[in-house]
Amino acid sequence: MKYCPKCRNEYREGIDVCPDCGETLLEGELTEEVLVPIYFGDEEQMNLLKDYLEYNNIMSGKVSHNEKDDVYELSVSQNDREQSMKLVSVFIRQEIERAEDEGEIDETDVEPVSPYIDNREKAADNRSSGWTLLFVGTVGLIFFILCMTGVINLSLGDSVLFYIVMIAFMIFMIVSGIISFINAKKLMGAAKTDSDLRSSILDFVEENLKAEDIDAKIDMTDNLNPEEKFFSRSALIKSAINEKFVNLDQGFLDSLIDETIYEKVFSD
């Protein structure tokens, strides 16, 4: 059995050249190929990128769904990775230029993106909510118990049902406050994990991602405007980090790249 080293199609004996790729066929068994993710997005965008790679004779592309992060990944073979990243940056730039020329980019049509909030901020918000709920619930519970027992007269007559409902509501607020404190404690633990992960990523970036190496993978034959350059560079940085650190929260990674990593790598 023979197979094509580029598109990995198998052929019977007697065929020496792949009719699709023009590559010389190799003898032997076709082994399973290890794929590495190079870009993330929605399904339609990833399939367009895959078609674009195939148009440029990169046949190893595969689109899969990452259920954890609810995004689609475009992966290629390790041998095709470097050339694929160059083609991806070209494709993105062409899509931006096409959209601008056709007037498809309209700020009024763009849905606002919620900023990533780290676990430390979430913990602080939960703690603050917890104190508020506990205070209001406790004061309210005491107040309505005193009203119900006649210590405080609200002139509501003998409205026992009203007091029962309000007391139940105050108890609900107290329980919610306790839950908020429990969530805050969990989030602080997650924040510690995020901090350790952030340090590991920054160490990896400092040791492995150099500005000149990233720019070498971008097609610089045309002058890129600052927005296009930032987008292409960020995509390459994101791909390299995702390859090293699997199952990252993509919001966490985007925030880290925008706020820290990009400036760290391209400090000039």
Name the helicity range. 55-70%
Number of helices: 7
User: Compute the gyration radius: what is it?
Assistant: 29 Å
Cα distance, first to last residue?
54 Å
The overall average pLDDT, rounded, is 80
Percent strand equals 5-15%
| SS content category | mainly alpha
Topology readout:
Elements lengths: L1 E2 L6 E2 L14 E2 L7 E7 L1 H13 L6 E5 L4 E7 L3 H21 L17 H30 L11 H49 L2 H6 L9 H19 L5 H16 L3
Helix pairs in contact: 2-6, 3-4, 4-7, 6-7
Report on the architecture of this protein:
By secondary structure, the chain is mainly α. The protein has two domains: 2-106, no CATH class; 119-265, no CATH class. Helix content is 57%, strand content 9%. It contains seven helices and six strands; from the N terminus they run ββββαββαααααα. It has helices at residues 43-55, 81-101, 119-148, 160-208, 211-216, 226-244, 250-265; strands at 2-3, 10-11, 26-27, 35-41, 62-66, 71-77. The longest helix has 49 residues, at 160-208. It is elongated and about 100 Å long.
